[in-house]
What we know:
- The chain has 2 domains: 5-122, PAS domain (Beta-Lactamase), CATH 3.30.450.20; 132-291, 2-Layer Sandwich (Alpha-Beta Plaits).
- It is built from 10 helices and 12 strands.
- The protein has helices spanning 5-14, 33-39, 43-46, 57-73, 118-131, 141-158, 172-179, 181-198, 222-237, 265-282, and strands spanning 18-22, 28-31, 77-84, 90-102, 106-116, 162-169, 204-209, 212-218, 240-243, 246-249, 252-258, 291-293.
- The longest helix is centred in the middle third of the chain and has 18 residues, at 141-158.
Amino acid sequence: MKLDNDQYRIIVESSPNMIWRAGTDTLCNYFNTTWLKFTGRTMTQEMGNGWAEGIHPEDFDMCLKVYLEAFAKQESFEIEYRLKRRDGVYRWINDRGVPYYINDHEFAGYIGSCMDVTDKVEGQKLRELAQRDGLTRIYNRQYFEQLANVEFSKAKRFDADLCVAMIDIDRFKTINDTYGHHAGDLVLKTVAKTINESIRAFDLFGRYGGDEFVLLMSNTNYAEASILIARLKHVLDTIEIKYNDTLIHISASFGLYQMHHEVILEKVIIEADKKLYEIKNSRPKQPPHSFEQRPAL
């Protein structure tokens, strides 16, 4: 059965989704009842760019950029942003827009459909808080150990190789004592980001505590892990962190251990930690951390 215009309008107005339409001038010229009930505004207030007054200021530039870039290419888009509800509370909105055409191929503008996805977005953020270290955004110790225990159990079951490396930033205390904790935080974030971007997709990497990190390499023997560790050390050695008028050169020590017959993962981590401090204690006492002074601009 072919639907007439009145039937289409009833469907759109009755939709639980918030629906909008824009013309070829990029300006919105229609909002359904669900949208207007959500925002608590009139059609006249929302028309044109009026609806954008409800976008959270932090999301406005992103929304405008995505919308205009898609419009220029006549491509579909999907974005999430915060929109002010009628009670003044910002809610997360998932907005999907598609170009529509009349007379077969004549571009007529965009039609969009929006859903309130606040519960989903906030749930994801809560999971992130539970799983990620607040400073470095890599796995925190608790979540790392949760994932690592799964890999450890697999390795035991299938008699597969598994290596763990404990990583410690060299002379980190000197950085904190000399330049303060802000500089120390910058070093921690840089080291974490560098290693996280340099390891393989199936490796597990987390912050173990303070300036110590842990890396688990499943299906990897000691020789293979040593190659990866050598590459990570080289990458870190080439980093220069700019802090005010100073260049901070960093390095890290790695304690590598391959699982043998350990019953629990903790024993493997302890052995890797022992290797780390054997390496650090075997070195001759080193001068303070290397800094290059530069005149302030």
